[in-house]
Specification:
Keywords: Membrane, Transmembrane, Transmembrane helix. The protein is an all-alpha fold. It contains five helices and no strands.
Length: 124
């Protein structure tokens, strides 16, 4: 049981780092390392509308595939979103809901694949 908890925490820390890199890392790169303002804006808008939802979906999918459904991953996605307030000085709840839904859908599909894989191992 202790090994299972330790492994879960390791995986959640990895998921936290992925989520934080999408919420904060891209913006740090866009605002501080790229001097071209147009390229910087493209990166930020692309991250908001495309990259972050895809990465959160894939993170949820992989986490669900290897560990089953995890409400703690969804809580991480939901609670780490306010980190973006530091960059934009505002909070848009619609993005927070959409990002959480992307992670929920990915985690649900991954959990479904996890249960199917588990059944296939029991009954080949």
């Amino acid at each position: 049981m202790e090994k299972l908890r330790k492994e879960s925490w390791k995986n959640l820390v990895l998921a936290t780092l992925i989520i934080l890199s999408m919420y904060a890392g891209i913006y740090l790169i866009a605002f501080h390392l790229i001097s071209d303002t147009m390229l910087s804006k493209e990166l930020v808008v692309g991250n908001i509308l495309l990259y972050t939802p895809i990465v959160l979906f894939l993170t949820g999918l992989l986490y669900g595939f290897f560990h089953g459904f995890s409400p703690s991953l969804l809580v991480l996605v939901l609670l780490l979103y306010p980190v973006t307030i530091f960059f934009f000085k505002e909070w848009i709840i619609l993005y927070q809901i959409v990002y959480t839904l992307c992670a929920l859908i990915g985690n649900g599909i991954g959990a479904l694949l996890f249960s199917l894989r588990k059944k296939m191992r029991k009954n080949p």
